[in-house]
Request: fold
Amino acid sequence: MSLIKKMSILGIRSFGPKNDDRQVIQFQHPLTLIVGPNGAGKTTIIECLKYATTGDHPQNTKGGAFVHDPKLVLETEVKAKVQLLCTNVHGETITVERGMVAIQKQKTIQCKTLDGVITKIKKNGEEVQIPSKCANINREMVASLGVSTAVLENVIFCHQEDSNWPLSEGKSVKQKFDDIFEATRYIKALEELRKVQKDKKSEITRLKGEMPHLEIYCKTAKEKTEQLQTVQTKYDTAEQSARDLMVDLQPLDGDIRRLRQQQDQVRELQSKRQTIDSRLKQMLTDKNKLKSRIRNLFKGTDEELNTLREEEDMGLTNIKEEVDQLNRNIRKIDDEVAELTKKKLDYSTKQGQLQSEIEACELKRQKRDDLIRNHGDKIEFIVSEEEVLTTQQVADFLQSFGKHCEEEENKLASVKSQLETELRQVEDEQQEVQQSETELRVRTKHVKDTLIQKKEKQAKNLRELSRLKSASENDELENLQTKLENAQEKLAEAQKCGGNVEEIRLEIKRLLRKNMQDQQTRDSIEKDLGVLHKTSETRMKISMMEKEIESKEEVIADNKKICFDGLSDFGFSTKLPTVTTLDNLLQEKEESSKNIRNKLDDKRMELGRLREKRDMIHTQTKEKQSRMNDLDESLFEICGSQDLVSEITMMESQIEDLQESKGLLHGTQHLFRDYIKKLKSKDDHNDSDAPCPLCHRAFEDISEVLELTQDLEKKLEMAPKKLESRMKELKQKEERYKMLLEQKPVKSELDVLSGKTLPTLTSQAESIESKISNIEEEMEGLEAQLESSRKDKNVVKSLHPKLLVVYSSEKEVRDLKRKTKVLGDTMPTLTSRKTIDELNQEKKDLSAAVNKNSQIIDQKRREIEDKNEKLNQLREEVNAAKEEKVNLTGQLQKIEQLREEQENLSVEVNKLKGEFAENEEKRAPLQRRVEDIKKRRASLDRNKERKLSQMKLELQNGRKIFDEINEMAKEIEVYDENNYDLLAEKLRKKLSSAESKISYKNEQQQEMRKAIGDLQNKSASFADRQRDLEDNQLLREREREVVEVNEQISQIMSQLGGENSDKIERELNALSKKYQSIEKEKERCAVRQEGFRETMSLLKRELNQNNYKNADSVYRDCLVRSTVLTMAADDLEKYYKALDRAIMQFHKTKMDEINKIIRELWQQTYRGRDIDYIEICSSDDTGSLSATRRTFNYRVVMHAGNVAMDMRGRCSAGQKVLASIVIRLALAETFCINCGVLALDEPTTNLDRDNIEGLAEALVDIIESRQRQRNFQLIVITHDEEFVELLGRSSYVDHFFRVNKDDSGKSHIMRCPIRSLGAEEQFT
Reply:
């Protein structure tokens, strides 16, 4: 924490320029008081403090006005110096010394600034000097004190002329606050961030707009380049293949044409033969089946057969038409029944709804009558329990009850008005009594405040009287006289002991001569170092060359070792081969690898052909196996696990059994009808003795006849169903038999595949696999030889560059040694044997000796200054003793005056106490009356709410009942008008009619279904006869076709003449496959060549376009730059927002803290009643410049009641001064955390006595609150000695400094005791 201790002033304004005129002031903690008349030089002290810390001259001091005028001392040159001793923020003692010189020219005075110096004594005792040539003293002082230059200028050491700056014009106030907050540089930083970000974003936008196109160009160029290389390779391969294929095609063409003609002839004949054989076989099979299936073989002609079939077809068609007509009638009746059922359901639903509405209406009617009976007594409407109300009675009730509700509403409004009138009367009475009590309370408070002030003044006078009485009784005046004499004696002794100053000066001169000699020696050493530095470059080159030679020799040795290790297997174990020899060896290894690779390629081609053949056989095997599996699955789906032939035989036997069963059923029906007819004829004649028509056994009783008849009728009824079942089963068996016959070719093909084709393919595949294994073993051996040769070649190839390095490095070493010798010959000879390091060490020792002597010189000079300072201090003590004596004498003369004032204050205090007691007695009954009125008002409020809520509830219930009865009456009236009972009766009749119609339609459907059953039985017998006739007709057709096919087979056999078609087929297939594969390959090559040529031409043209040249590098550069700029822009945005938030938060926090302190100090200091408090209002103004620049406007506002007004232009001069002081105190409290110094220059200007006292009390309170801070220092400069006396009454200061001018106009500073102020006044 920084603080100022002492300051020495020489040659500044009215302070003299000679050493005897030097004035020293020692600043106290926590309060330093400086008093003096106008023009004595008090403000000069503030100016010197400001100059020492900031280096700034006061305003309007151009031309040397800040320095003592040379004309006053009859000199042409006057030197001024200000020395300030202080402690920095780290607790280190520092001394800053600044000097100026004023030179009298012919017409003007020229002022120059001399070199300044800062001397810092660290905590370990080390002393460090920082001259102005080596550092910026202004920045060093700002850093040492821990506050900014703006705070030093405008808050801590503010000049008297500028002390009212908080109430100056807005632009000036804004500038000073911006400097204090250091807002300008942060705002500029924000603007610069935004500007840079904007530039980068525009660049990013431009780059991003180009990037998609560049990316497309880059990808396209890359794809096209790769595509061009691929296409070129493919084109060369296709061209060579096409030439080879043309040679292979020519001999195949003639052989294929010859064999194809021969093959076509044989194939055509064989195909016909196979087709006819298959057809003949199938025809014979069908013929046998038909013969076995026909029960009655037709013997007539074909015309008779066709006629009989047409008659059967016509009978079957008529039966089907009758069945279809009956089905249509049944469906029509179904639709009618569905429609009637829907109507019936609709009628039932409507009937239920009507019944529900009737019941609901009866309930509402009963509820309406109950409500009218329950609430009729309110309007004298009486109805008995058994009586049913009519519509007119309900209407009369509603009219009467509505009038009753309106009367209740009027009654509620009347009661509410009456209660509100009573409440207003009580409120008026309460307001009147409270106003009287408030006026009396204000008068009592004023009396109390006055009484407190009088008591404080009385206590103050009592303390002063006690102090003066004690001083008078203790002979303090005589003690001060003794103290003065002792101080004068000490001053005389010190002046006598000052003779050794000349000896110290002689010692300083001796040390200066010693320093000059050491500096000359150091200069000669620097010359020698210069010579060494001139040749240092050459020496460095030689050293670097020697190091390079060593490194290259190490490289040569390492590479030689590697080469010997690698080439020892090739016969070079003692001497390295030349590069040419190594190249020849490498060529031999490459030739060997090439030969092995050629052999390996031949084996690979042979292996590829075998594998291709193996794959072809595997493919054929898979296809045949797949075909066999498919055939097997199809057979399994039809036959299951049974054999096809056995399945066909079994199916033929089943079909025969079914046909016989069907014939038996037909005959049984005719037989049963005949039996029944005969039995019934016996039954009609009641002839029980007649025998059975089948067994001719006689019946014992007529009941047996009836029983047999019934049994036969039942069997006869079941016969059509059994016949139909047998026909259905027969049809299924015939269809399955047909499917089984169709699978015979499949079975034969399956046998060929499993017995011949697949075993042949398997043996071929095994033979090829054996050949492949042999070739692969040979290839493994060749690959091992190739790998060995490749390793040798790689070893030789890897050692080739190392051998080159060995030979080239040896040559470079020879060159470097030659260059090193040449540079060594050009080096100059040196007389000194010392190295640069030794010379630098000697120079460093001499510099240390010079610095040490300089420190001794400075110490001696400070010793002289200390002696002079001690003399000045003794002089100050003598002056202080004189001032204390004069002050005490004056104060002792004020005792009687203080006693009279004390008696007057006692009388006034007693009077005020009586008045206060009287006012308190008057307030008590008024307060009790106010409480009574409040209780009465609360009671009225509760009564009002209770009555009104009860009446409102009753009214709401009545309205609700009225609305409910009215709604139910309307609904009942609607019911009566619609006559729901009549509608319900009509619906019951319609429902009964629909049910009778549905019953009739169902009976009709039963009759039609019975007729359909009879017709279906008749249709079955027609179908059997028709199928038998169809089979007869098919049998005759098959017999004619068999004869025709046998004739065709005879013709084909004569045409073939024994030609072998299989051999032709095999030869032609082999030649055709070979020719087709070559031809296809040739066509593919030609097509590929043409496509490749066009593609290459197009790609070359496209790649030569400007967009695709260097597209990869252009896109990469653009992408990198865009990415970097985007990241930079994002970072700048984060920095901008973070800095902006920090500025706003810092500004808001500081302004709140400042306004809080200002408000407390103002209320503590200001004695007037027209201003409650003041504050600084700041507003953010961004609209005038741009959206990126943030500025703040400031103004001082005073608050009176709830009104806020600008203080500038509306306040008095005293208020202006007091407001400025309070604001500076608040700013110091806020911004001077590390520096607790504050100087107030003439703070009582334009202030009345009450505000002066208030200011003194506020300053004392500030001192009390901050006395524990070691660095708090308040410096008050004033000409108002009464103000100083008020501050001096505190226990924080026991002396002050008085500034006066002597007869020659020079200013002097004297230290005086605080109690001497009164004595001096009496003396003057």
